[in-house]
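Re: that backbone. Tokens:
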């Protein structure tokens, strides 16, 4: 048996054993205290399922978009060592320009304003 097969078998066996042990030893007796929403020791004042503002999701999507931009531009310093660094820099510049235009558009449309 080679080493990779041995490691896969051992990790699978250990995962199954730990999952079975968890189901066997876990205490599953929920009561009203465990099922109630936690609010720093105070009695619940209202529903814990209040809807979020759509602005919150917009800011989260914008954060993910610009975080993805950083991930796409991360290999740029190494790519400038290629035979044609002009092509790499042109693609990077076009990506940054496109995202900047999108940000300016959102800003002018008032999409970044938290309260209206």
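Recovered sequence:
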């Amino acid at each position: 048996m080679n080493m990779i097969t041995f490691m896969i078998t051992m990790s699978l066996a250990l995962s199954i054993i730990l999952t079975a042990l968890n189901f066997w030893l876990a205490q599953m007796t929920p009561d009203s205290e465990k099922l109630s929403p936690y609010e720093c020791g105070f009695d619940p004042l209202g529903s814990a399922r209040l809807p979020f503002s759509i602005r919150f999701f917009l800011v989260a999507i914008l954060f993910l978009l610009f975080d993805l931009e950083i991930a796409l531009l991360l290999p740029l310093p190494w790519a400038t060592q290629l035979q044609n660094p002009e092509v790499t820099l042109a693609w990077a510049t076009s990506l940054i320009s496109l995202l900047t235009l999108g940000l300016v558009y959102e800003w002018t449309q008032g999409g970044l304003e938290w309260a209206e």
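Residues 37 and 46 are 10 Å apart (CA to CA). The two ends are 67 Å apart (CA to CA).
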